[in-house]
Amino acid sequence: MATQRETDVTARTDRETFEEVDWDTQEVSTFNVSRTAVAELLAYGAIVVLFAYDYAVIRNEHPLIANWDVLSVEWLFVATLVAVFFHGVVPLYRNPRMREFYWSRFVKNRVAVAALVYLLVVFVIGIVGPAVMSPPETRFTNRIVPPVGITATVGGVVKTGTWQFPLGTTAEGKGVLKLIVYGMRVSMEVGLIGTVFTVLIGSVVGSLAALATALDIGWLDEVLMRYVDVQSVFPTFMLLLLLTYLFGSELWMIILLFGFFSWEGIARTVRGEALQRSSEAYVTAARASGASMLYIVQRHLIPNSANSIVIGATVAIPGFILGEASLAFLGFSDPTTFSWGRTISAGQSNLATAWWISTFPGIFLFFTVLSFYYVGEAMRDAMDPRQQIEGGGGL
Amino acid sequence: MSGTEPLLSVESLTTHFHTEEGTVRAVDGVDFDVYRGETVAIVGESGSGKTVTSESVTKIIDIPPGEIVDGSVTFDGRELTGLSDEELQEIRGDRISHVFQNPQNGLNPVYRVGRQIGEVLRIHEDGISDAEVRRRVVDLLDRTGIPEASSRVDDYPHEFSGGMKQRVLIAMALARDPDLLIADEPTTALDVTIQAQILRLLEELQADFDMSVIFVTHDLAVVSEIADRVVVMYAGKVMERGRVEEVFEAPAHPYTRSLIACLPGRGSAMRRIEGSLPEATDPPEGCRFHPRCEYATDGCASGDQPPLYHVGGDGNRQSPAPVGGDADHTAACVYYGPAHDVSTLEDGGDRQ
Amino acid sequence: MSRTEPLLEVRNLTKHFPITEGIFNREVGRVRAVDGISFTVDPGETVGLVGESGCGKSTAAETILRLEEPTDGEVLFDGQDLTAFDDTELKAFRREAQMIFQNPDSSFDPRMTVGESIAEPLRIHGVGPRERRQTIARDLLERVGLAADDADRYPHELSGGQKQRVALARALVVNPRLIVADEPVSALDVSVQADVITLLREVQAAFDLSILFISHDMSVVREVCDRVAVMYLGEIVELADTETLFEEPQHPYTRALLRSIPTLDPGERGIDASLTGEVPNPSNPPAGCNFHTRCPEVIQPAELDLDQSTYRGIVDLRVTARRHGIDVESLRDLVGVDPDASLTDEQAAEMRAALRAEHDVPETVDDPEAESVLSSALDEIVRGETAAGVERLAETFASPCESTDPGLRDTGVGHPAACLQFDDAETAVDREESELTAD
Lengths: 395, 352, 439
Known about the structure:
The complex is a heterotrimer of chains A (395), B (352) and C (439).
Chain A: H1 35-58, H2 72-94, H3 96-106, H4 110-132, E1 151-154, E2 157-160, H5 176-214, H6 218-233, H7 236-247, H8 251-260, H9 264-277, H10 281-288, H11 293-329, H12 340-347, H13 356-383
Antiparallel strand pairs in A: 1-2
Chain B: E1 8-19, E2 22-34, E3 39-43, H1 50-57, E4 66-75, E5 78-79, H2 85-91, E6 96-99, H3 113-124, H4 130-143, H5 149-152, H6 162-174, E7 180-184, H7 192-209, E8 212-217, H8 220-226, E9 229-234, E10 237-243, H9 244-249, H10 254-261, E11 309-310, E12 330-331, H11 343-351
Parallel strand pairs in B: 3-8, 3-9, 6-7, 7-8
Antiparallel strand pairs in B: 1-2, 1-4, 4-5, 9-10, 10-12, 11-12
Helix pairs in contact in B: 3-4, 3-6, 4-6, 6-7
Chain C: E1 8-21, E2 26-41, E3 46-50, H1 57-64, E4 72-77, E5 80-81, H2 87-96, E6 97-100, H3 114-124, H4 130-143, H5 160-172, E7 178-182, H6 190-207, E8 210-215, H7 218-224, E9 227-232, E10 235-241, H8 242-247, H9 252-259, H10 308-323, H11 328-335, H12 345-358, H13 368-382, H14 386-397, E11 409-410, E12 416-417, H15 431-436
Parallel strand pairs in C: 3-8, 3-9, 6-7, 7-8
Antiparallel strand pairs in C: 1-2, 1-4, 4-5, 9-10, 11-12
């Protein structure tokens, strides 16, 4: 608890005090952007420039950087990582006490800590792996090799796995391990990009609706929220099937479709939270100090909805990963996308003889989705404001 | 006070809460008695342990994190601290009942008030008929001053104002004609004119039902208005105890004096108490009030809280007050004990 | 006393909230939260606005600061009508007037540090950069009795009293001339309350602030305010110097309010609960003097001279009958008559007696003429002809308070009150003038 001292309200120091502010010279520019915001904008700018360069100048004739030919999804993924860095990592780094507070509550859930470690491993391998590992290649000479140390009879031939393919190969001779590592990248891309879009659209629509209510533009709120209602009862999966059928099933397409048709939950949450917060005294205090509505939304309403947004996001990620895997399993995926769902589907016909083709990606898919749920659950517990009441009972 | 046995006798009651920040010694060795038909006020600020004390009597505190570590609570000759939950449930709402601060939370919004009051009767009286329940509920509402009780019995809680809800809750508490009513800040959430109505009502009902009342409050003015005796608490300890007239006319403990001096609107200059309320997990050693006390000596800062000494009457001053003999005016301050000159306190008072 | 120009002058300020229904938001009624109040606040002065919950004092505060748009009336700040300000002028005004709130827990954004919260008004008014704002905030923290390093703490790490100190610092940071404090100490412990009040006084003296102090707590108001306006159902019923108000209250409501405060002297026990009933719903305020439904001193018609408590009881009965109706069925139930059976004379008498008992009307009223009207009216009521009974009662017992809105008028002791007791039509003064004679 802070120490309370003798008060002397007129005490003067050599530092600048509020009495010395010359009000006539203020109000020159209220537009000031923080250094992190500048850095973030520069990062997005660089991505856009590189993309334009790649698209207009190189025209896919040779890889952009060394031997990395950046694909459309990867552009989105890089932008997503930048967003996650500036809105997740940076605030956590800057607020050591907030970080410690949430972390101390998070670690109470041991399973979630294990899940988080697993996800970090998947994330890192997903990023690094495809960069250092050549993509899985179709080699009919290596068709259906069992994992290392396992002996199996495939098509009448007895084979024993070697270290060349630690987890065996598929019917096309692709290494299952490589498929899994490339699948990690795909899953992370699907989960993160889709969620960033969901959060972005959801928060904008939600706060716009709340703002409209606050400014007495009731009809705008009505229009937005009725659309949200429609979207939430719309059979989105059918629409996805139709659109991928019509426009092709490239990964970026699927991810964007996920992102654009799954934000209604976050929009509702943000609107509800924002409306609830807007009756708090600190919002009235800001208004009484002359704050504009936009300022209040930006500085108070959205930051205070952050917990609900994060919780919504942790639920969205595993949903998207499963959704993409399902689409791929059903055959809606690009042949160059090494999705787990696609590998599982491919191993299906050989399940009796070559169980490893479907099983290993299946296990990874299962644990990844489960881990996101556990981490989400623990984050929800850690961030639930109702549990932040300090102990001591009815003192 | 008559020489009869007290209805409720609380001795060295100690209740702890085990929290992440450490153990909170919410109630730290509290003694007081309640005799039949009297009103005892427990008064204190936040963190004084007044509410936990009152809730420890029938163990309605959450256990865990709460724990009654020590002490005894004797009610009508029966020890309550060792009773099982089932045994306590028979006593709660029947012989000892509670009224709480916030009337909004006390009633379930989806049931009619009549049904909620009737529930108390049904729990404690097997085979009571519906007609009998209704008759008694209407009678209770009527006695607690709810106009047109016979029709309002079928209303839902939201149809009652704050003051009326508190009346309903009082009716509920009185349903089984309890011996002891524990009222925890029952008027704090109400407007002053409604507070006056409820205080008056409680006075009338106390005589009517011939019950004892423990009145927990932070408001000294309310204490002086309704209590017979008062227990002043600070940081889990009893600071001063005595009849209301004695305590208000000649407050003995420096804390009580400061508390009265910082009340606003008495015409004379309001004086603040230096320092801030102690932290729950880390109260000061020695007299809990010593860091803020202008009379504190070095000795006040170590050991435990001084025992309750008799105030006035030189003969008694040399020994701690016998536990339970609390019809007398006592204060937990070394100046009333041996080897101190109580007149220091008076001199100090003049200095200001 | 030579008068300076008031810093704040509120003229006939009115705030009604429409009650709407249906998809076309048809207005079906109005909550008259603030219903034409006028008062002034001088530079360096503290004016209290007191009343029970629902009297409109907080709405008045928000409307004065134009956080709510007024329905009618003017608010002059430094001589300029801020109800006519455009956005730029309003923003400039927002620097001159700040607000402090009741609940220290919701007064601060839990995600902002104390320093950021204090500096927020600076930021809004374009003072930069961040480091400069933080220097100012840290300096202010020390001056309100906290440590400069508390700027890096979060609100939940501070106690209630410390948060109110921070709230004061946030209000001071733009060097305002007026602070509107809405119950700033009501949520605090007594000893902490004294702390914050002391600080508020020091700050006021040091910076010559005007304070509009909203409170329900008469003791705090007495401690803090120079002048007090007592509000009831959206209207100011009395306006006087603090000491005059407490020593010579003129309005029956003020008197009742003061009597219901518990005293610190156990020798003077016996709290007065003469103010029965509760504040009526402001969407349907009583006609005439809106306090007549509860007033212990409600004026009898010229022809009557009943015992005041008897008359009060009869008015209560009429008010109930008019506003909620009499529940004849439960009366029948009480006497034990089947709902459809016709009443015997004895049963009717029993029900009449029950009605009288419920409203504290004696079994017979002293005045024989009044008694005969009363008993025939009651007879009509218990026989289900409520309207006729109410009509009959109104003919004999209607109080002038029911029909005439008193408005603030001279009381003869130097300050105005809104009560017909001071029914000297000649001295009934214009509201604005009465404002000027207030001190």
